[in-house]
Amino acid sequence: MLNRLFASNKASKDDPPPYGLQTRSSKWFILVTVAWAIFTDIFLYGVIVPVLPFALESRAGVEVDNVQHWVAIMLAVYAAGLLVFSPIWGWFADNTKSRGMPFTLGLLALMAATALLCVGNSIGIIVAGRLLQGISAALVWSVGLAIVADTVGSKNVGEAMGWITLAMGAAIFVGPMLGGIAFAKGGYYAVFGMCFGLLGLDTALRLIMIENSVARLYRSDEEQEEDSDRSKEKTVNAGTERQPDAEEPAQKTFSTRQPTVLVLLRTPRLIAALWACLVVATLLTSFDSVLPLYVSQTFHWDSLGAGLIFLSVCVPTFLEPVIGWLSDRYGTRWLAAGGFLGAMPFYVLLRFVTYNSLEQKVLLCALLTLIGVTVSLVMAPMMAEITRIVEAVEQERPGIFGDSGAYAQGYALFNVAWAGGTLVGPIWGGYVVGEAGWGTMGWSLGLLSAVTAVPTFVYAGGEIYKPRAAGGPLPDSEDSRADATAA
């Protein structure tokens, strides 16, 4: 009975398939499962943002003057766990037979982290819970994004990452908002009641999902051959046609003793993409440590208002699937570089929000919404860029990553960059506001965004001064857009 409920990575085509194999291994179900896993992770990260200042004072006994300091530290501890463990989990996921097992391990770690935060009544326990939460997120993100890349291929990865980013944006908004509401209406434990409910649904989805590498084991030889043909077609679409002839000589196979991570880090295009991801995370999380306290001090809002203000930043993320689709068809460069450059004036204009009035509240919400729109132009295209870069390296040097591939390690590096941003962002926001004021925080972040537009424009989608790799256009270069549109 159990072998019909759960899939095994040791199965063969002669074994009876699990119930609902076709649905449970379909692209849409896998995408929904990964999106929900990432939604849950970000929700559990964000749900405590508006609660933390009040909880530190009432539960952990932190003095009022030290609350801002500890808020920044608690938010940064999560990033530290994500930063350190992402490369480890990425290597682990790329070198296991199935990604399902590490994906489930991440869930167990997230449950343990949530339990620690729920019962924590001291600085030490809360720090431990936040650190374990970051460690589990490193595993969930590296493996989850690799599963999506495995499933959809580079041709449609922008749109897929758009749905993932939509889940992220929804969680970034819903987490702080519902955290503030639940804390105001039901207290500290009501907040974690929601968290455990989300984890229950997350557990069900992960147990039901069957990844493609496992589902393929139950299929006939003919079905496996069709899957292989589709996989090859994805690779051709990723790199575009490399030759006009019907037949080509066998490609040279490369091998290296260098770790996969080092091979990837020697790619300038990847370095630019990682820097862009780090800056996006910095721009977004800089608000986590300052916005709830700033609106509380300026507008005299409680935890409910502190949570609702994040709505302005996160609503534009509902555009992400469309933006991802556009990046699949027309490339990453102009969308991402335009997003960074466009965000600059809106960050600078935050300096004019200084006192309590209806006009000032409207101005703040409008600026935050425009920041959300411009940053949304960057998120999905740059996440999809990681898949395209890994495939471009593999295509230029076949066999360089061996049989295991490098998606998980590519997204582990994305995690490192994102973690670096979530580490820098709260510290940047908290300490710049504390030392130089709200206005200085705004213009300094605007300057960072504008500067990042330069390497993004040069490298996103392939170096602008070197549009062709050896033998053909790069996966997301201008030369390949017509092929992608036709496909």
Question: Could you characterize the architecture of this molecule?
Answer:
With 487 residues, this protein is mainly α. Helix content is 73%, strand content 1%. It has 22 helices and two strands. A two-stranded antiparallel sheet has the order 1-2. Helix 7 crosses helix 20, helix 13 packs antiparallel against helix 19 and helix 17 runs parallel beside helix 19. The C terminus is likely disordered.
Topology readout:
Blueprint (H helix, E strand, L loop, with lengths): L1 H4 L15 H4 L2 H20 L5 H7 L8 H28 L5 H20 L3 H30 L4 H30 L1 H21 L3 H4 L5 H19 L20 H6 L2 H18 L5 H9 L3 H6 L2 H4 L5 H11 L2 H16 L9 H39 L10 H30 L1 H22 L8 E2 L2 E2 L7 H6 L1
Antiparallel strand pairs: 1-2
Helix pairs in contact: 3-7, 3-8, 3-9, 4-5, 5-7, 5-20, 6-7, 6-9, 7-20, 8-9, 8-17, 8-19, 13-19, 13-20, 13-21, 17-19, 18-19, 18-21, 19-20, 20-21
Question: How would you concisely characterize the structure shown here?
Answer:
It is built from 22 helices and two strands.
- Structural category is mainly alpha
Q: Mean pLDDT score, rounded?
A: 80
* Helix count, DSSP H or I runs of 4 or more residues: 22
Query: What string gives the helices and strands in order?
Result: HHHHHHHHHHHHHHHHHHHHHEEH
Oligomerization state of this entry?
Answer: single chain
Which spans of ≥5 residues are poorly predicted at pLDDT below 50? 232-250, 467-479, 481-487
Largest β-sheet summary? 2 strands, antiparallel
Strand arrangement, largest sheet?
1-2
Percent strand = under 5%
Distance between the termini: 43 Å
**Shape field:** globular
Radius of gyration over C-alpha positions, nearest whole angstrom: 23 Å
Portion of residues in helices?
over 70%
Number of strands: 2
